[in-house]
Amino acid sequence: MENKIVIYTDGGSRGNPGPAGIGVWIKTLDKKYGECIGIKTNNDAEYEALIFGLKKVKALLGKTKAKQFEIECYADSELMVKQLNHEYKLKEERIQKYFIEIWNLMLDFKEVKFNHVMREKNKVADEMVNAALDGKCKQTSLL
Fold this sequence. Notes:
Elements: E1 4-13, E2 18-26, E3 31-40, H1 42-61, H2 63-66, E4 70-75, H3 78-84, H4 93-106, E5 111-116, H5 123-134, H6 136-140
Parallel strand pairs: 1-4, 4-5
Antiparallel strand pairs: 1-2, 2-3
């Protein structure tokens, strides 16, 4: 087996800010997750989805084994991908904090790459976001 894990992440909010959810598909391990994350912006949700995905991969592999794996991340947020690839500056303090958290998580793996993918190619993660927003998040929000 090649030591590479492919993950797709997506985040979204209804209202921006509004009730938000994340979706993660760890394609290589065939694992899917959808979670509610409270009231957030779309940007926050995109970052939180990626953080969740990296933490989940580390937990599934174990700390020692994770160091041997290259992680390929795909997200449909061009802004986030360009920020993580040092193409765009991080102006907002809360986004800088997400960036630092992701940078620290990267140290747990052999290598982490960030790739932009069109929304049509990110359907599984998008479905997980919408399932969370339509189900769990709706039940817990005060709408």
